[in-house]
Amino acid sequence: MTIRRLDAETVDRIAAGEVVTRPARVVAELVENSLDAGADDVAIEVDGDGTDRIRVVDDGRGMDAEMAELAVERHTTSKLPEGDLTGVETLGFRGEALASVAEVATLEVTTNDGGPRGTRVVVEDGETDVAPAGRAEGTTVEVRDLFHNRRARRDSLASPKAEFARISGLVSRYALVRPSVRFRLHHDGREVFATPGSGDYADALLGVYDRQVASRSTELDAETGVDDRSVAIRGALCYPSITRSTRDHVYVAVNGRPLTDERLRRAVVAGYGSLLPSGRAPVAVVDVSLPSGAVDPNVHPAKERVAVRAADAVESAVERAVADALSTADLRRSAEVSMDLDSTLSPLETDSVFDDATVVGQFRGLYLLCAADDGLLVVDQHAAHERVNYERLRAAVDEASVPSATLDPPETVSLSPAAAAAAEAHRETLRRLGFDVAAFGGNTYRLRSVPAPLGRVADVDAFREALAALRSGEDPDGRRDELLADLACHPSLKAGDDLTTDEASALLDRLGQCDQPFACPHGRPTVLEIEEQALARGFEREATRFG
Ligand code: ADP
Ligand code: MG
C-alpha cells in the first residue's frame, strides 16, 4: 500500500467542503481511517467537548515512516490508486482529513505497519516533526487543542454535553453498522459503551443500547436483485414493542457507511407497516450492500449521503426485506409480571405461530388464556379479531379497487366549499376507495355508494375521514389501509363477549395464520407472553437455575 498525491484534476472533482467543523467531524474522520485500515478494534477517547483531546487507537495495518509523513499532507491518500473516484470502496478517498485537522489542532500520529519499530509524526503550528517510536502494529491518532487558532469556531460550539452527545451518537452509528469491529468509547476516562466485535448485530445493539432492546430484535439477512445487480440487506430489527418518537434510532448504511438518508430510513419504517403504533418509529439497523459501481460516495462534503443508482428500486427492496423479516419473526410480547423478565424470544419455525398453544380459558370476557410451550399466552380477543378481520379484508380487496355497496336512497352530505372542491379533485381516488359521490346543488353532495368489502359497510363518517385524509395530502394507499383497519375494528369482538372454547380456538388459529399476528391493525399488541421461567421465579421454584 502506498500513499500518493492526487493530481489537480482529481482534486477538482472532489466534493470539497470544510472538513473539520466540530469535534464530532474529527472523530468521524479518524474512525473512518481506522476502519479503512482494516482495524478489528477501535478505541475512542474524548476529553470534555473534544477540543481538549480526542484519541483514536486502532489495530489496523498502520503506516511506515515514509507513508506517515506523507499522510498528514493535503490531498495525499492511499485509497485512490488510479485516481479514480468511481468504484471507491473505502470510507475515505479525499486525502485531506489529517491535513485539515493539523491546520486547526496539534496532531500526533503514532503508527507501525508491522515493522521492527514505529514512527511518530507530530504537526504543531505548521511544523512537522518525524521520529521513531515504539508501537505495535496499528495507529494511534491524538488531536489536542482543537480550534486553538479558530476562535469563531470554538465559540460556535454547543455545550460540552451536547458536543459529546454528537460524538457518542456518531460512534454508535459506526458501531452498529460494523458489528464485526470492536468499538469502545470513553469520555473523561469513563467507558460510555463498548461492543464486542462478534459480527452479530444483536451484540452491537446490546453494547450501544441495553438487554431489553437487544433481546427483542430479529436478524435481517436478505439477498435480492435490483436490475441485474445483487443487493444484500443485513442488520437487526427491534420488535415493534420497542419504539421511539423519532426516526433517529433507525440506522441506515450503504456498504458499511452510515448515512443520514431520510429516504432509506423511511423505507425501513414502511417495512414495519401496521405493526407500529401510529406516530412511533422503530429501533433498527440496516446496511445495504451494493456493487461499488452502483454507488457514488462523492456527493456530500461530510460523506453523509451517497448517490445510489436505481434508488427507488433499492428502497422498495429494503422495505420488502424488512416486512418479510418481521412477518417470520415471533413478535409476541413479554408481559411485565412483578419481576424483571430476563426474556429472550426465540423464533418459532411453524406455519401457524400458535400451533403449540391451547386455549385454557377466558378472563373477564376480554382475554384468552392459552398454554404454550414456554409459558402462558394472553391474547386480547378484540385486538386479535381486528387483525384477523383486517387481513381478510385486505385479501378481499384487489390492488385496484375496493368493492362497494350502493346506498339506496343515497346519503346526502353537506360539505364546506373547500371540502367540496377536494371531493371534485379527488373524485377518481375516492372511487377507487369505494366512494361514489356526486354534486347535488349548492354545497350538498350525494353519496351513492360506499366501500363494503366482505359485507362490512362504511358510513358517511368514513367518507368524511377519507376526504380529510386526502386533503391533508395523505397517500391513497395508506388511506385505504386505514379504512380497512377501521372497518376491521367495527364489527370485531367487544369487551365482555363470551366465547366458547371452540370459538376461542378458532380465533387463535386464525390469528396464528395471519401475516402479522402480533399487532392489531392500529399497531397495538395482540398477544402477551408470560414465560414459564417468570412464574417459576415468582414462585421461587428453581431459584438456582434462574437466580
Ligand atoms: P483519506 O482517508 O481520504 O485517504 P486522510 O487524510 O484521512 O485521507 O488520510 C490520509 C492517508 O493516511 C490515508 O489514505 C491512509 O493511507 C493513511 N492513514 C490515515 N489514518 C490511518 C490509520 N488509522 N491507519 C492506517 N493508515 C492511515
Ligand atoms: Mg480519511
Q: Topology, please?
A:
Blueprint: E1 4-5, H1 8-13, H2 23-36, E2 41-47, E3 53-58, H3 65-71, E4 76-77, H4 97-104, E5 106-112, E6 118-124, E7 127-133, E8 138-144, H5 151-156, H6 160-177, E9 182-187, E10 190-194, H7 201-208, H8 211-215, E11 217-226, E12 229-238, E13 243-244, E14 250-254, E15 257-259, H9 262-272, E16 281-282, E17 284-289, E18 295-296, E19 307-308, H10 311-328, E20 333-334, E21 358-363, E22 367-371, E23 375-380, H11 381-396, E24 404-414, H12 417-425, H13 427-433, E25 436-439, E26 444-451, H14 460-471, H15 476-489, H16 501-513, E27 527-531, H17 532-538, H18 543-546
The structure holds adenosine-5'-diphosphate and magnesium ion (MG).
Describe this structure in words.
With 547 residues, this protein is an alpha+beta fold. Helices cover 33% and strands 27% of the residues. It has 18 helices and 27 strands. The chain has an 8-stranded mixed sheet. Strands 11-12-17-14-15 form a 5-stranded mixed sheet, sandwiched between helices. Strands 20-27-23-22-21 form a 5-stranded mixed sheet. Strand 25 (436-439) and strand 26 (444-451) form a beta hairpin. Helix 2 packs parallel to helix 6 and helix 9 packs parallel to helix 10. The radius of gyration is 29 Å and the shape is elongated. It starts with a strand and ends with a helix. The model is unreliable at 336-350 (pLDDT under 50). It binds adenosine-5'-diphosphate and magnesium ion. Residues 29, 32-33, 92, 97 line the site of magnesium ion (MG).
